[in-house]
Amino acid sequence: MEFRRRFYELLLKDYLATHRQMAFVSGPRQVGKTTTCRSLADHYLNWDSQEDRELILAGQKALASHLGLDRLRPSPAKSADGAPVLLLDELHKYPRWKLFSKGLFDTLGDGLRVVVTGSSRLDTDRKMGDSLMGRYFLYNLHPFSVAETGSQDLPDPARVIRSPKRPHEPEFAALWRFGGYPQPFLKRDPRFSHRWQGLRQAQLLREDVREQTQIQQIDHLAVLMDLLRSRSGDPLVYSNLAGAVRVSVDTMRRWIDTLAGLHHGFLVRPWYKNVTRSLRKEPKWYLRDWSAVEDARKRAETFVACHLLKAVDGWNDMGLGQFQLGYLRDKEGREVDFVVVRDGAPWFLVEVKHGQSPIGPGLAHYQGQTGAPFAFQVEMETGYVDADCFAKPRGPLAVPARTFLSQLL
After folding, report:
1. CATH of domain 7-140
2. What pLDDT score was predicted for residue 125?
C-alpha cells in the first residue's frame, strides 16, 4: 500500500516553527494521526507501551533525562528554534493526562516542543477546572478529501478558499466508494474495506468506550451504532432512538455525545439567527465514514458534510477566522442542508443532490433571509467544470461536487 503525505504535516510543521504551546492533535481512530505526527517528532512515547508508560509515570525529571534535555545536542532538532519535538501518543488514556501535560509544559516548555495525540476529543478547556488555557492549541485531523488528494499545500490565508483543481477521476471514485480513511482509501479492496470497518467499530466499542467511559451496556450501544448508520443526515429524535434501543432519553443523549466525542459521527445544529420561524433544537447526525452509508442520496449528503466539517475545522485551526457549520430549517418545512458561517455571518449555503435536478426554492428563500453571498446546489454526478464557484456573489448556482469540493481543504 502506497504512503500518502497529508497537508496536516505541513500545517503542524509550520505551527511548531512559530509557537511554543503544545499541539493537541485529535481525530478519529485510524485517521493517520500517529503517522503524520511521527514524521515531525524527534522523540516518540506511546501510552500503550508499558516501557513508555512507566517513563511517563516517573515524572518530568526522569523524562527530561531520558530525552537528553540536560545535555548538549549534537544536531538541530525538527523545530525551528532547535528545541526537540516530543510526540505523546494516546496520552488521553492516562487518567491524569491533563495534569501531566500542564506540568510538562510548565517545567520543560522552554526547551521542548510537545505534540499530544488522541482518538477522543482533547478540547479540554471547556470541561476542566484546572485549565490548560494558554498552554496548547487544538488541531483536528480528518480523513482524505477531494481537495487533499489534489494538493497538500496550505490555502492562501487572504482568500481561505482554494482555486479549483480537477480531481483525478480514480481518486474521486475511490473516495466515494471506500471513504477517506487512509487504509481503505489507499488499498481500494472491497473485502479489506468491509473487514476494516467491522474491526474499527469493534475496537471503538471494546477499547475506547470501555476504557474512557462509564457505559456498561455495550451491546445496546452497538445496536444504536447500527441504527445511526442508516440515519446519517437525518434529524435526531432522541425519544425515538431511546425507544428503539430500550434506554432512557437522557441516556441516549449521553451516548450520542460519547459517539461524537470519539469521532464516530458528528452533529450539525440548526442556524437560526435571521431565520424566521426557525427550528432551534433538533441536530442532524452524520457518520464520519461516509462509505458505510448504503443509500446513495444519504451517502452524498454525508460525503459533503464530512468535507465541510473538515474545512470548517481546518480554517479554525489555522486561525483564518471563526467558522461554524449548521443547517437551515423552519416550521413550514423549508430546509437547506448546510450553512457555513464565517465570523458570525452566513457565508455560503449548500444543498446536496446526488444527480442533476432543478434548483429548489429553499436556496433562494434562505439566501434572501440570511444575506449569504453564495448559495450552491452541489451535484455529485455532474462532471468537473473548470471555474471558480466563489468568483463573485450571486444567486443560487448549481455546481459540480468535483469543482466545489476541490476548493475546500
Report:
1. 3.40.50.300
2. 45
